[in-house]
Design goal:
121 residues, Lipocalin
């Protein structure tokens, strides 16, 4: 009985995770101008994987991705002018599931950028 309760609880938590699987695109205003970024997400349970790309920073794999209800978090390692930097993303899926608002933090630069992305497929 105890195992059944644990399995039901795990299923309920997994069922509540937002399904953001697919391709999303959006932009952010930065001191260097507008940056467009594409995200390709895959969700399995509460694990978020995939990749993201932009013209300025190229393509990066999503690491440490998590989905907790409508909240997402992950990090990427990007290269800018030959320097690698980690960017940490936190986001929230809109109630209709068609938009995600992200905060992208670059800890070493003390900079935060906000993205709004929409599902394109």
């Amino acid at each position: 009985m105890k195992w059944l309760l644990i399995l039901v609880t795990l299923f309920a938590v997994t069922a509540m995770a937002a399904d953001v699987t697919g391709t999303w695109k959006g932009s952010a205003e930065t001191p260097n101008g507008t940056i467009e970024r594409t995200f390709v997400f895959k969700v399995e349970g509460t694990t978020l994987t995939g990749e993201t790309s932009s013209e300025m920073l190229g393509k990066s794999a999503i690491k440490n991705g998590k989905v907790d209800g409508d909240n997402l978090s992950f990090s990427i390692t990007a290269s800018f002018q030959g320097n690698e930097m980690q960017i940490n993303y936190t986001g929230k899926v809109s109630s209709d599931g068609k938009e995600i608002k992200f905060k992208a933090e670059i800890p070493n630069a003390g900079q935060t950028v906000e993205y709004t992305v929409k599902r394109i497929s």
